[in-house]
Amino acid sequence: MKDTTLRINGEERKLSADTRTTLLDALRNHLGLTGSKKGCDHGQCGACTVMVNGRRINSCLTLACMHDGDEITTVEGLGEPGNLSPLQAAFVKHDGFQCGYCTPGQICSATAMLEEIKDNWPSNVSGSLTGEAKLTPEEISERMSGNLCRCAAYPNIVDAIREAAEASS
Amino acid sequence: MKAFDYQRPETIAEAIKAASKPGASYYAGGTNLLDLMKVGVRTPDSLIDITRLDDLKRIEPQKDGSLRIGALVRNSDLARNVDILSDYPAIAEALLSGASGQLRNSATVGGNLMQQPRCAYFYDPHSACNLHEVGEGCDALEGENGKHAVLGWTKTCIAVHPSDFCVPLAAMGARVVVDGPDGSREISIDEFYTLPGSVQPPGSALKQGEIITAIILPSDAKRFAPRARYIKLRDRTSYAFAIVSAAAMLHIGDGRIKDARIALGGVAANPWRAREAEDTLNGAEANEASFKKAADAALADAKPSGDNAHKIELARRILVRALKAAADGTPPKMPDLPGSVFAVGKEAR
């Protein structure tokens, strides 16, 4: 067992868990935050995506005990019914889902991805390695490729991300 | 998953001491190791979490012109580093073609070198695999082996090295810096990987307790920066391992190739440096005939290890394509993904 203190969605949370506990299992099974989803549990589907210190990662592929003192943001921290984040609202408007299982991961991933674009991180389809990163549909598809949607709501997901990004810029 | 003891050392010396015990394993990004622990292929007694060793997170140009990359630099940070983008662009291209945004934020440079094969039989503790234990045999030989090796393999193991990043590293002759109980040493990227005839998975060059502290990109590889490319073929347009890939770097003067560096990915148990192919290009004109000759030389000894003869021709073609792209010059514009549905009519959507 290992004691770990996490700062989740702005709130300090204490965890006492087996060292084998992944961050995803800690969130879901120990801390009652079931927004983050377990899809493949092998870092292949992205349903478990959360932000750690502002960066998106697969919470299934990291141990909770490694994150002592880290700032974790889950989908619950982005917005809530009646006070949705711009991306959450855009996903609703554009029907960016069907079953909804991948949606929390999609939204956490997209939230961080838009910050990466603002910081000019290049991608494998960027027009330039060093120029301004642009938010084209192909850029969104490439940068979101770590989030699978078995219902294939991809066109609507791209539209939702595009609208939310344009609204915030 | 087998229970393990968890330690988070504050210094490299403490980390080495903790990891020198048999059964101990370093742990950084964990994107491969934790996955292997979940399926029961890796069963360390203790994990030494090195993610708080800040000394290993720097990217530092050296006095001799080389670039030292700390082992804990995350893939996403390296892929946007200004020195990498200007002096070693094929490294950025390789990193950005690998994995997903989430994984690139977790995965580290040192961990990338330590990546284990993605062979399904290696990943299954109940299948026979000589990388589990020497003498178990190899279920891949008679199994699903369409993605397996075509160069340098033996019947002991036909798995391929999965890394993109290591392919340009091999082409430019990068060096791996390690520290350990017996002090610090440098290993060439060639020596870091041994071929499967000796049944040694990636990382075998390290002794118990040794830690990768940095990778050194040689200064003489900067001359390839204007003509250096990494091109990858995969089953889907993004987020997949290479079926085959190629790093091609050319130094051209007076209309002739003065120096060439070539490595292939997805074809062997190591990132495959193709020196014979490089030799055919020295002094040659930079044209398609030369590139085809080089590709023939690179694949001359290739043979299928199973249902994968197609990879030989694919590797030939991707190498010609990478050499052509390199000869055209490292563009300010990145390529469309090979075979991408977005490659035509990009703004049509």
TrEMBL record, chain A:
InterPro entries in alphabetical order: 2Fe-2S-bd, 2Fe-2S-bd_dom_sf, 2Fe-2S_ferredoxin-like_sf, 2Fe-2S_ferredoxin-type, 2Fe2S_fd_BS, Aldehyde_Oxdr_Iron-Sulfur, Beta-grasp_dom_sf
Keyword line: Iron, Metal-binding, Oxidoreductase
Presence of keyword Endoplasmic reticulum: no
All copies of domain 2Fe-2S ferredoxin-type, residue ranges: 2-78
SUPFAM superfamilies referenced in this protein's UniProt entry, alphabetically: 2Fe-2S ferredoxin-like, CO dehydrogenase ISP C-domain like
PROSITE patterns noted in UniProt: 2FE2S_FER_1 (PS00197), 2FE2S_FER_2 (PS51085)
Pfam family, one: Fer2
Coiled-coil portions: none
PANTHER family, per database record: OXIDOREDUCTASE, IRON-SULPHUR BINDING SUBUNIT-RELATED-RELATED
Name recorded for this polypeptide: 2Fe-2S iron-sulfur cluster-binding protein
Species assigned in the record: Henriciella marina
Taxonomy of the source species: Bacteria, Pseudomonadati, Pseudomonadota, Alphaproteobacteria, Hyphomonadales
UniProtKB/TrEMBL annotation, chain B:
Name of protein: Xanthine dehydrogenase family protein subunit M
Domain (FAD-binding PCMH-type): residue spans on this chain: 1-222
Keyword Flavoprotein (UniProt): yes
InterPro entries associated with the record: CO_DH_flav_C, CO_DH_flav_C_dom_sf, Diverse_Substr_Oxidored, FAD-bd_PCMH, FAD-bd_PCMH-like_sf, FAD-bd_PCMH_sub1, FAD-bd_PCMH_sub2, Mopterin_DH_FAD-bd
Keyword terms: FAD, Flavoprotein
Lineage: Bacteria, Pseudomonadati, Pseudomonadota, Alphaproteobacteria, Hyphomonadales
Presence of keyword Secreted: no
Superkingdom field: Bacteria
One Pfam assignment: FAD_binding_5
Naturally occurring in which organism (per UniProt): Henriciella marina
